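sanity check this record:

:::
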Amino acid sequence: MSACRRMLYLVKHRSLLTHVRRNLTTWSPVGAAFNARPHRKLDLFQKNGLFGVPELSCPAGFQVATEKALKNTEHLVEKAYSSSPGVQTVQCFDQLSDELCKVADLADFIKVAHPDPAFREAAEKTCIEIGTVVEKLNTNVELCKSLKNLLDNPDIVAQLDPDTRRVADLFMFDFEISGIHLDDTLRKEAVALHVKLLDLNNEFLVRSHMPNRIARSAIPEHLHLHFATEGSFIQIGGLHADSPNDLVREIAYRIYLYPNAELMGCLEELLKCRYKLATLVGYESYGHRALKGTMAKTPGYYTSLFFFSHNRDIFIIQTAKDFKMMRDMKKKLSPRHSELMPWDHPYLSGVLRAERYNIEPSLYSPYLSLGSCMEGLNNLFSQLYGVSLMSEQPRAGEVWSEDVRKLAVVHETEGLLGYIYCDFFHRQDKPHQDCHFTIRGGRQCQETGQYQLPVVVLMLSLPHPTKGAPTLLTPGMMENLFHEMGHAMHSMLGRTRYQHVTGTRCATDFAEVPSILMEYFATDYRVISQFARHYETGQPLPESMVARLCESKKVCGAADTQLQIFYAVLDQIYHSKPQNRSTTEILKDMQQKFYGLPYTPNTAWQLRFSHLIGYGAKYYSYLMSRAVASMVWKQCFIEDPLNREMGERYRREMLAHGGAKEPMLMVEGISNKLKYSSNYSIDSSFSANPQDFCDSIFLL
């Protein structure tokens, strides 16, 4: 963006920029945009495609966009073959990757989020077609040779800047884990396995969210009102974990998790194919293949650190105390059914928190309208990074649902950084999962000299505003909003030269750090006090209520963490060497060893473990990232969560690099900068030592 255009953009939205410097009782433009129903302007003369892509004004456009991308890909492959080794080789590879990702990533979102089945089906075909091409390119010997000629020349490599060298290494890593070193026959087998896994991944992801059903006559009639009905059947599409009715929770748990033979077969085949692919290309297991390049490095390393953590014994004792509190509460609430079961954990831990600290969500929601929370995020980003969120009116056809909001992210001196599409509201057939999707990665375009702006989508499932009130969030919803916005700002502020490492395209066990860090801001009164006001009276949320909410998080915290450890270990075992037993038998064994509550016969929780797709062998990343985020918070923001100097340092040392720098080096970088800062002291315990991370997990 030119200096002139940037100035016009900032002047146009000057009211929003001045808002963040003072307290107002009225909504700013960004707050108003989210606290009211959208009013679309009818455009009779222009029909745009999704995200402004002209071809995507109808489902058939996906095939057009796919063919266009594949044609451009052929040209770029030929260019890579013929180019002399140098920076231009890496730039060509990145442009090739970008050409495919711009279509595949967009389709990956539309296939799960668009309300029109025709769009979803067309997007799914695009994902499979482009995914197949990607796997063939990753085993293209001539293409690999052009990159190898660069990396094997020490004189040329010495002239590469660090980002270019890392991206070149990452592209070579993609070749290696795809089996580029194999002979023709085995390479073709690897490609076939990749393509098969694309289908299996998609099948499992879709079916893992589908409801189960049971005859109405099998459930007591007075409980029918708690579930959806379909003719003579009851449909159960979730665990109803927050229901105060013991029997409702038990029925939902047993029916929703009842084994589905076809889905079980899909998961078993998926795990078998992953192992076969990993061993085919030279790895001990799929876990070893998946964790190469992450902070963990290998599966067994961090598992052993968890077992031998200095704080583990203390943690086990606290977990036992948590379960005892839950058992006592269940005896109090249900004397005739006092055994603590897996379906009780979420509900009873919530009851204990509410009873001890009086944190009924309905007491908080009036202070947490969606608009006020968005204003709070805008204020926070402005003070930390000099960034503002500016509401824009999407053009006709640009969004897939009329309630989607579009935000421009604008820096006070750098100008427009990118766009965030906010798909926040519940609708039929929309996944009940909070997610961040990269639609287009940022990169420096050598062909145009311009920076390609990143585009992302945040997807939540919030209630719609009503005639009498805006959308009101519970504290948990507000934290989830902050979490997902952490991913979005990582994408916006990661101004990398190469899209291959843009924003969240980094090691999985580092990608959650910026989002989890945002949860700390969401529970700090110095941040909350800037935006949490009653939507009717304008009264601020009392500090005592925030203090109670923060204290309540410690209640049953050990048991909650123990559950996450169980999930992480189960994921690791599934992706280790074959166990010669069913996934359900493995689940039962791991649940007994790592959780503490009994396995329920005729259930298969693993069939609802959709993270096995995007986070296969990497579910531990949530625990690892939480430990790192905790360290960053304590050393950077706990003294002053609104400090601009710390915000800029955090952006410069961590967010700006995306995946262009080793995660541990980023953690060490911000640590070392703090050690030599004259304004801030750093605790000597802060380090990038893996054992320190694991020890801290048991103290979170």
Q: What stands out?
A: The radius of gyration is 26 Å. Strands lie at 212-215, 228-230, 233-236, 387-392, 405-411, 415-425, 435-440, 443-444, 451-452, 455-462.
